[in-house]
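User: Hi! Is it possible to get a structure for several chains at once, not just one? Here's what I have:
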Amino acid sequence: MNRAQLRFTIILLIIGLMVSIQFNTIKTPQSRDTRDVWEIRRELSKEMQLHSELLKEIRSANETLGKYENIQSESPEEALRETVMNLREAAGLTEFTGPGLVMVIRPSIESMATGAGIATISPELLNRLLNEINRYRNQAVGIDERRLIPFSAIRDINGETTVNGLPVRTPPFEIKVGTGTMEEARQLYNALHASNIADDFFIDNLTLDIKEPVSQLNIPAYDQPIENKFLFEAEKE
Amino acid sequence: MWLPLLGLILGLSFGLLTDMRIPAQYENYLSIAVLAALDTLFGGIRAHLQNVYDDKVFVSGFFFNIALAAGLAFLGVHLGIDLYLAAIFAFGVRLFQNIAVIRRILLSKWDERKKEKKESPQK
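Assistant: Yes, the chains can be modeled jointly so their relative placement is included. Here is the combined structure:
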């Protein structure tokens, strides 16, 4: 009896082992890292870029902090006012003056020659152009003298293309892009020339005329009220 | 009673803790071998309950069934016939039958014990 039990035990041990091996084999499909060196490098460079951007942000925050500390003894109000001014600038609530480039959108010569009616620019095309512009560093964009801010909507309202709720003129009209430095303006100019965005305009019977960068450019401030649904003023203590 | 259970737990934990794995192409053989092993195990339990348990039959049946199942699967792969289905079918049906018999035996034993308990206080 004892011997039989021992055999039974050994067989059960084998069964347990088999079941657990089967379980292991089926349960863990090995997900292998199939990236090659270049893909890993690319990811690494992306992370490094993020790293440097974060460092830059930290530096600017530190600068502000240092400024507060310096001015605190003299007038804290001045520092706060300056911060508010900076924020308003970043939000697009002040007029932009600085280097940049101007683009003119015109009806194409071909469409004029055939006598086709002048069509307004479609919101899709305008968005496409903006996406192309936003790939590069810029500080302010004005479409037909309407300043774009992060809240701006470009959409079709009753058949008219509108920016910030106001219709855009039929071509020709100007798009101004303000950049931080002349160098950035030149980069944007070259990039836009190299991209095939002009072909997309040609399909819509329009031409995109990108002018040489200029050192002085004015883009008006955003002039409509900003609706703020989620942020509220803190109660005074 | 507890020694075999201990063996099962020992085998399971050994396999799980060592994280042993077999190559994916042998997965089919192992799964069918597991089925054969379970079939033999339940057959053994049934034989034990019916008092016809034979040690030699059990041990030889265990290894022979596993080998046969794996062999059939192997042959099936090389002949292009899904012969492992035959093994799965045979073992599957037998497994269910064995478990049904075990259940009936246990139920009748339980009934008997109940009856005995009822009768004993009357005496």
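Chain B has a mean pLDDT of 87. Chain B touches chain A at residues 3-16, 19-22, 24, 27, 30-31, 33-34, 37-38, 40-41, 44, 53, 55, 58-59, 62 (CB under 8 Å).

User: Great, thank you!
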